[in-house]
Amino acid sequence: MxxxxxxxxxxxxxxxxxxxxxxxxxxxxxxxxxxxxxxFLRADNDEVNAWLGRIQEGRAQASDxxxxxxxxxxxVQSINSTLEDDSLTLTEAKANNISADTFDVMSRLxxxxxxxxxxxxxxxxxxxxxxLDFLR
Length: 136
Fold this sequence. Notes:
Elements: H1 13-17, H2 29-42, H3 45-135
């Protein structure tokens, strides 16, 4: 009864840095930072502005990934809480079943004891009657 369902807890480095998988924005953060450095070294203002826009997209991409990680963490905590509640419920149900079985056994023993007492009483009456008949 193996269950193959799983919830990812974190995002991979590739998802964060390259942003290739949804909801990534396709921004390679390291390449953008390297290109921005080059633009600064060349003192090319237009290129710096272009790369700053790309880095803003990368920042938004990192924020998206952080949000996804938070959502996944909340899902894992919720499932863990549900599993703990289910475990407690099953433990209580097991305890109730054990108590119910004990009660059932005690009831049956009491019924059997009463039946044996009635049988012994009847047996004494038969023996007493037979003994009187024998003595007459």
